[in-house]
Amino acid sequence: MIDRRALVLAAAGAGFSFGTRAAELLGDDGKPASTWRLPSEISLDPPGLIVAGGKSPDVIVTEFFDYNCPWCKKSAGDLDRLVQGDKDFSLRLIQNPVLSLGSVQAAKVALAVRALAGNETAYRFHRALLARRGQVTGQEALAEATALKLDRKAVEDKADSEDLIQQLRRHGAISRALAMDATPSFAVNGMGIAGWPGAGTMQRVVKNVRACDAIAC
Fold first, then answer.
1. Burial code of 49-85, b = ≥16 C-beta within 10 A, e = fewer?
2. Whether residue 54 has pLDDT greater than 60
3. How many CA atoms lie within 13 A of 129 on its CB side?
4. Could you give the CA distance from residue 134 to residue 53 in angstroms, rounded to a whole number?
5. 57 in a structural domain
6. With 90 as the cut, is the pLDDT of residue 101 above it?
7. 35 lies in which domain range?
8. pTM of the model
9. Which helix (H) or strand (E) holds 125?
10. Considering the domain boundaries, does residue 54 fall inside one?
11. 8 A C-beta contact, residue 137 and residue 102
């Protein structure tokens, strides 16, 4: 587990800034998005990570999400269009189930699908679960896994296994350590972005990283 207080103290000593705007980034609504610098010491590649997009991307967006987050559901289609339309873009997904017990259960099922069926199936599961209306619980998540022709009991058993519980704890520890309190939040090129800034803004972020190696040029 990552100790948040120790990390903040270390980050402050190294010149990192948490919770303060570190780049002028306007969302689609014209309002400034909350951004902050991220410490490079924390890996964004934990076990159970779902990865979609190009194999050798020049821009990577890591999303911290909850399956019951309305804005995670709203933004899922826009992010998938980036995945499908840009071969040099990669979306990486870290579980941050903070909204309900159902969110935790769904995240465990997602990690189980990733472990049993691989990354591509896990991403299809992810998209299907975010497309569901209403509250998502473990039962809804298991139903989506079954729809993907996975064995329900095998998924359920894997979701309750100690190694998967440790994976979920690791995802949560990274989310807390990086101050990803809002869902969704994003890590892009060493910067954090709180909330969904909008499809147009995210497209500009990708272009800016390529043009000037920053989320806002």
1. bbbbbbeebebbbbbbbbbbbeebbebbeebbebbee
2. yes
3. 35
4. 28
5. yes
6. yes
7. 4-212
8. 0.88
9. helix 119-130
10. yes
11. yes
Q: Please state the domain count of the chain.
A: 1
Contacts for 78 with CB less than 8 Å, ≥ 6 apart: 199, 202
Closest CA to 155 of 200, 108, 188: 108
Distances (CA, A) of 54 to 40, 69, 107: 23, 26, 24
* Cβ atoms of 115 and 158 closer than 8 Å: yes
- The mean pLDDT value for 190-204 works out to 97
User: Side chain identity at 111, as an amino acid letter?
Assistant: L
As beta bridge partners, residue 94 has 64
The closest alpha carbon to 155, from 106, 204, 195, belongs to 106
Spatial CB neighbours of 154, under 8 Å, sequence gap ≥ 6: 116
CA count, 13 A, side-chain hemisphere, 94:
28
- What's the pLDDT score for residue 17? 42
Structure tokens at 24: 């002028």
Cα angle at 7 between 196 and 170, to 5 degrees?
65
In a domain, 192, yes or no: yes
Cβ-Cβ contacts under 8 Å for 29 (sequence gap 6 or more): 198
Whether pLDDT at 126 is above 50: yes
If DSSP codes are grouped into helix, strand and coil, which group holds residue 2? coil
> How many angstroms separate the CA atoms of 139 and 66, rounded?
16
- Which CATH number belongs to the domain containing residue 106 in this structure? 3.40.30.10
pLDDT bin (cut points 50, 70, 90) of residue 23 is low
Q: How far apart are CA 29 and CA 51, in angstroms?
A: 29
CA-based nearest residue to 165, from 115, 123, 99: 115
